[in-house]
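Q: What structure does this chain adopt?
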Amino acid sequence: MQFIFKPIPSESIEIVVPLVKKMSKPFITEVLLLERFKEMVTQNYECVGVYDGDLLIGVSGLWFCTRHYSGRSVELDHVFIEESYRNNGLGTQFLTWIQNYVKAKGCEMIELNAYIENVPSQNFYEKDGFIKPGFHLIKPL
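A:
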């Protein structure tokens, strides 16, 4: 099966909402997600997708910045592949495509967060060479 990997235009960002909703906490509604995505695309954010023909089956957000400890970097956000397409190498293909895409944009480092309870996700990224140098802490305001 041949998949297409490509950036999602900011003016079409609403197409990612149904996929991201599948991985979101229940209290985050599709209306709230769309509101947030419309704001995100005005910042240093891009979204890329995986397509099976015209059908969007996977997404990843890309937050671009320069950090003192890593230089020009990108943080992957809400990486998601439809369940029926998992466990066949597509995630690895998508991650490879993303790495080539952001490297061509001058990035020196990729970062991401994985939920503590999502051990399969952590194992996937560690297999690709990601390391766990610390904890990501949050505090609601």
